[in-house]
Amino acid sequence: MSNVVRCGLIQTKNEVVSPAGGTDKKMLEQIKEKMLNKHLEYTKQAHEKGVKILCYQEIFNGPYFCAEQQTCWYETAEEIPNGPTIKLMQETAKKYGMVLIVPIYEKEQTGVYYNSAAVIDADGSYLGKYRKNHIPHVAPGFWEKFYFRPGNLGYPVFQTQFATIGVYICYDRHFPEGARALGLAGAEIVFNPSATVAGLSEYLWKLEQPAHAAANGYFVGAINRVGTEAPWNIGEFYGSSYFCNPRGQIIYQASRDQEELLVGDLNLDEIKEVRHTWQFFRDRRPETYEQLVKL
């Protein structure tokens, strides 16, 4: 009997014009509320379609505010797991019997913020969080070091009711070391919620993450938001969310420009089949890699 897990990815856009450089707390809350409600509706649809593991996009309840450097966005950060958004998503996960990966802007304390994702099991229990390790600061429009500290929790995996999963976030995908760590720790599915625009790195979107899947023999769920976000308009978030299998083949893919829920059936038995063929973990030579962490 096959071990199939139905998974989902949500790609959406922020439609509220953000207060560039402003301090309008009412507007900030309006944005969060609208994005939250949109995701709750898609989550209901996912439940109706039988999804068991569902992942949201990077900083799912807001715009990609790293397009500017303004302290007003610090006000949108919340604690994990004790903030209101994660508490609500715990209730939602329990209601639908669904594992949720919930990326938000995390506040550890005033002045200490992370780009994080909470993992919630299907019974509503909080399993832990991943904090984005690799933080870009790239012109134009990706000023993430202004907002986030580098993650300090390593590369954890989470044993959910349906699969063992790992999380990478956006810019992390350019670094194979963490992807390998997740595989060695037992991840069967790695979810990578992102916010990336058309241009320089778009060709890597369908290259790097399938390569991680093939190199480590696991499934990857890659998410990107869609549309442009005013007032910054730093470029088009080109969607194209997808699932790829342990052979590195893209097996389900969303559209480039439409909001949607992407659903895919992942047969976890394929992991064993692929790893019995390609013995990459057996043939590793970690004793020869010491120089990698010295350079």
TrEMBL record:
<keyword id="KW-0378">Hydrolase</keyword>
<dbReference type="GO" id="GO:0016746">
    <property type="term" value="F:acyltransferase activity"/>
</dbReference>
<feature type="domain" description="CN hydrolase">
    <location>
        <begin position="17"/>
        <end position="268"/>
    </location>
</feature>
<dbReference type="GO" id="GO:0016811">
    <property type="term" value="F:hydrolase activity, acting on carbon-nitrogen (but not peptide) bonds, in linear amides"/>
</dbReference>
<keyword id="KW-0012">Acyltransferase</keyword>
<dbReference type="InterPro" id="IPR050345">
    <property type="entry name" value="Aliph_Amidase/BUP"/>
</dbReference>
<dbReference type="InterPro" id="IPR036526">
    <property type="entry name" value="C-N_Hydrolase_sf"/>
</dbReference>
<dbReference type="Pfam" id="PF00795">
    <property type="entry name" value="CN_hydrolase"/>
</dbReference>
<dbReference type="InterPro" id="IPR003010">
    <property type="entry name" value="C-N_Hydrolase"/>
</dbReference>
<protein>
    <submittedName>
        <fullName>Acyltransferase</fullName>
    </submittedName>
</protein>
<keyword id="KW-0808">Transferase</keyword>
